[in-house]
Amino acid sequence: MNDNTAAPPDKKPVRRRKLELDPRLAAYTGVWVFVEHERGLVHPVSRELLGEGRKLADILGVELAGVVLAAPGDVARGFCDEAISYGADLCYLVEDPVLAEYRNQPYTAGMTGLVNAYQPEILLLGATTLGRDLAGSVATTLRTGLTADCTELNIDLENRSLAATRPTFGGSLLCTIVTRNYRPQMATVRPRVMAMPEPDTTRTGRIVEHSLGLVESDIATKLLEFIPDDRRDKANLPFADIIVAGGRGLKRPENFQMIWDLAKVLGAEVGATRPVVQAGWVSADRQVGQSGKTVRPNLYIAVGISGAIQHRVGMEASDVIVAVNEDPNAPIFDFATYGIVGNAIQIVPALTNAFRQHLTTARLAG
Amino acid sequence: MHTVVCIKQVPDSAQIRVHPVTNTIMRQGVPAIVNPYDLYALEEALRLKDRYGGRITVLCMGPPQAEAALRKALSFGADDAILLTDRAFAGADTLATSYALAAAIARIREDMPVDLVFAGKQTIDGDTAQVGPGIATRLGLQLLTYVSAVGEVDPENRRIIVQRRAEGGVQVLETALPCLITVLEGLNEMRFATMADMFRAARHPLTVWDREAAGIEDITKIGLKGSPTVVSKVFAPRPRTTRAELIEAQSGQPNDLADTLLAKLFTKHPQLGRQIVRRSS
Predict the structure, then answer these.
(1) Residue B266 at interface with chain A, using a CB cutoff of 8 Å
(2) Pick from A93, A172, B180, B206: CA 20 to 30 A from residue A41's CA?
């Protein structure tokens, strides 16, 4: 009863032998990426997955396919073209009016229908609310293995299996999970973990159409309304280029204001650690880490953050990490790019001033 | 209305430590708690019972000591508690777990039809969010995940309206009963159990089902055997290899430290420097 994670690793070392894949399994070939879209926009995680799927398909020597389930129209065709430009060789397209908005039942039917008809060996989805809802139902319908919320994907060449790595126990350990005797091998992957590939609009590929075979009266769930998030005050941490984040080292809630001040000068988003969110200094949508957001900015300034593993897993993919901490032995200095050992309450305002001056000068210089 | 609430007993992840040498979880002394997300599910079920009446059955799969999680649920006001426990369930992944729980719910509804199944959005130890969708799929229930608010229920016409968290907003969905709902944190606030409630819960009879009692005949569908996924490796996160370059200034003054850092950032990372300038203008 471990949800994939608590089983002990095999006690004996796994015998390394070349396995002949069961012909029933060998019939499954190709890597698929589900192209998630909502309100007419493709979710960025799908593009990241197409980049990652391209690598896996090349290692296996197979084709990469995008899967688009959508209402009929130019928009759906556009999603297919986009998938191809991001690396797919072909795109499976199920067009039907009942697929206009995401609902579990018709999307599960569309996806399982495609899998049964065209038999991919690997199926990847984003670990979003939509992707995880769909993946759980599809894997259960197909009676196959699904690994949730992965942060790394590899191919074990000995038996062509997908080795999916995910954090477990709050990020304190990683475990690699394989699905040896079932196909397709399914995984959901966290947004912003895989690198965003560059699209190539000169790429061409084919579109394979498939029908759904459902009508609206078959579907019990109806969408009454969609209430879009009010974006004005919402943190959009996963896609921020620069993040200034504060932790318990700031000591008092009023000191958190200096994080906002530095962020304002830099045009940055504000992030925080779990203890600070739990103490109510900032809202929960700003939490970075295992139980919060995974971020990948160009610059991450961590102030008064010790660098505990739960926080680290959410931000260590940042390009440049600057850490300000009073404790020279804080774990954050083990993986930050630059470190300043000192009192954050004095250093952060100095940084804000220095950036403000530098940027004013740079602007005047044009 | 008859509601089944699925709960799990989990180690309190905030108190888990990893052995520095062996990379194994040090479970000793780590308290077991009810998965926090499941308590929101239970409270939501209790609120529906307050509004519409009916019964609540809590279902928990786990080792015998998971009884404590069920007693806790009883103290808050659940009517019946079923512990699904059998060594044959050990090592189950999410597919095998959903098989066993779905079988148990099918067994429950032989005695009394089930209108609603509630669960937390995910557990804090597995974090997969897969068992809820798995149960719904197996039982043919309408599935509503990441629900942030439960609205009107119409027991006569067997309809329910909920709000569901989507990526760019909230979906307002209407569906048919029976359905399975997984709830987000924060959609309600758990009620308190009084001392009297706890005494009552401690004396409340508990139903314990093993594999056979739950009506499971096919042992290839449960436990390790019924699990397509295999854990092939457990390891500690790979450290980012380089230690931070420490910024120092002769004076040690904050202003000088800040200037030294900026000089580094803008000369060593020209692209980042340009980006910072562009954003601010």
Answers:
(1) yes
(2) B180
